[in-house]
User: What shape does this take?
Amino acid sequence: MNPLKKLLDSSEKYFTGSGKFNRLKPLFDATKTFLFFPSPKTSHIPFVRDSLDLKRFMSFVIISLLPVLIFGIYNTGLQAGYALGESYTFLQAFFSGSRYVIPIILVSYSVGFFWEVLFAAIQKHKISEGFLVTGLLFPLTLPATIPLWQVAVGISFGVVIGKEVFGGTGRNFLNPALTGRAFLFFSYPVSMSGEVWVAAASSVDGVSGATALSILAPEGEKITSALSNSGFSLSNLFLGFVPGSIGETSALCCILGALFLIITKIANFRIIIGGIAGLIVTSIIFYLIPGGSDSWMNAGPLFHLCAGGFLFGISFMATDPVSAPGTNPGRWIFGFLIGFFTVIIRVANPAFVEGTMLAILFMNVFAPMLDHIVIKYNVSRRIPNV
Amino acid sequence: MENIDISKGFKVILTGMPDLSVIQIPEPETIAVSALDIPYIRPKLLVKENDPVKTGTPLFCDKRNKSIHYVSPGTGIVKQIIFGQRRRLVEVVIALDKIQDKKDDFIQFETLSRDDLDTVPKSKITKMLQEGGLWQCFRQFPSKDTADENHEPPMIIVSLNGNDLFSPHPHAVLENETTFFEFGISVLKQFSKRIIVTSRQDNLSSLNRLNGLNKHITHIVPDFYPAWDPGVVLYKLKTTREENRSWCISAEHLVLMAKLLLTGRYPVKRVVTVTRSNDKKPHIITRQGAPVKDLAGSLDDNSLITTGRFNGRSVESGSHMGFFENTLTIISDNQKEELFGFIKPGLTKPTASKTFLSCLTKTPKNLDCNTHGEERACINCGYCVNICPVDLMPNFIIKALLSDDIEDALNYGLLDCCRCGLCSYACPSKIELTRILSHGIDAHYKDKE
Assistant: This one.
């Protein structure tokens, strides 16, 4: 027998029944089942079950986030290098970025995990794998410059108020990671405003990092050329060599992750495609409206798609099945409206430069209603059987 | 012949398909009539232990309609009447007579000739079937209860295939029985104007070899489970509300009915399959209610013996086959806990999802009787919706059922559920969806009663 398994089996008695640490049973269970995949015998029909379980389901989201994460670390280092006036090699940039990003992720996981274990112990249920995803998604939406205590406060709000008060994974109606981010966004606007998002920038005079979405063209200049002049050319935005939140900058990496999720059918393609369609249609409509050529109104679909956190949000946040609609037509509408509202908020609302987070949270609230309408329609088409 | 367009179901190819050849096994020592596989029955015993019985002697009837008999499939004495919890009848076990040289002592029922069929009233045929112990072959939707004799069904669905993927092949069941089958169809025409006979796509070519059988097949269904289930067929064919109370019957039972009516003797022969992963066993001819251990052999491991991997019941090796059961599936237990098992590439793991490399290969897979994970909360992923053959949304229905909102559940189509088990199969959160749906249907049934 595996020595690790032996160790777990021998220490199980401390965590169960009247053992010394029986309150930590959820933590023990989570560790044990993470290491050794449980597979008890079925006792009800059907006597056979699929090999897919929630652990694998959630791990696949983590895998899809790896390109975004690795590029995010690299880019953070790279941007920090620019701010210090140096150009780093890949490894230098990666290590420099790790110094900023890894602590954020560690704080997010450890603080969030603490709440998960606490609630699991109180409610006597098992720790759900959903947190593995939340704990990684949340830091990726943050700027690398964020103070670590804010990360802790944000993830606490996301997990406790966004999820656990409703009864835990499966019962939350808002995406917990985005709830946490929204909390930080409104509570600590200075660190989240998008003006000082380059790591190491604050220690150097005269460098002010801004994200693409906060750019406004000077009088008489087009927004697209203004963007290019500030380093936000379309190719830079697509590849991601621009300042921004850790995970959101590279459209390419987001697309890679989204493709992985679509091919493995972990995420529903209807939300992603619907969202991109909504964004493109709305941004074209704004593009065709005369005037406003110096603002994001006139940026056109490609800039809207690649700038900001839209692709990250629609691929990884909006596709969270718990807070998205459960019906296919509902998913199309849900996705489309996220794209629509993202552009509306970016263009028509001077208070917020980025609209994806608010658009997704807003549509999360409407997801049950979309489901309700679709189910009503489906029921009306069924031949009643009562 | 029309094709029925069914797109959702279990499409993984499995090992263990039985061979088409047929063998006969020696007469068993004991046989039994089980009450566990008869939905909703409230049995009333008509015999005591040690009573001698002939082939066709009623053993118990249904308290809800005492004229519906369940008769002895052999001659001998009642060896034991087994009760379960709350004195629920489990089995009536009969020790077969060895003295009479294995010849059955039949109770002679009334007979019916082909020419009489049009002149005899329907009630008379009903009575003959009830006395002969075969009326219960008619099952009535929506809950698949024993058919109500006073109800004229809008259609009767005859299914050539059983409840499991590897139930007996219709060729093995109907070989040499086509005349009985045809007579059975004309009996059905006395009960309903619309007779539907469905066959699996892949069975058509071998059924062609059976004389004149093909002309009775009205609909062809695709070759994946549970496209041939009468519940699925009804869902796809029905156009009005009244058709929800259609009947269904299996082709094997139809042949039994025809034999009973034509010969006046209770037919005892059954064709069963015993399937196991990586095994290719022949079809077996045996007697109704044969002991499980005679069919499955002795099993030394932890394997689960069921009468259908998706919607059968789990049986002990000491028990006997039920009236409605004609397949035994031995599912091996693979309880080892793999290190980091949740993230293995999984070239051989069967799955309906796209998250294992095995979904790229077409090689037959082995299913085991393990859950592959622990129960979690529903995350609304929609795997159950994507696999449900009757377009239900199990994720929403169970939420209605768990909050006791039976009205909503019924509106969502709960009674269309054919208990195929695929929602529970596919659920990554390992929620017992089929069980909750099934309880909901039963609760509704009891409510109405």
Notes: The CA atoms of residues 81 and 87 of chain B lie 11 Å apart. Chain B has two domains: 2-263, 373-448.
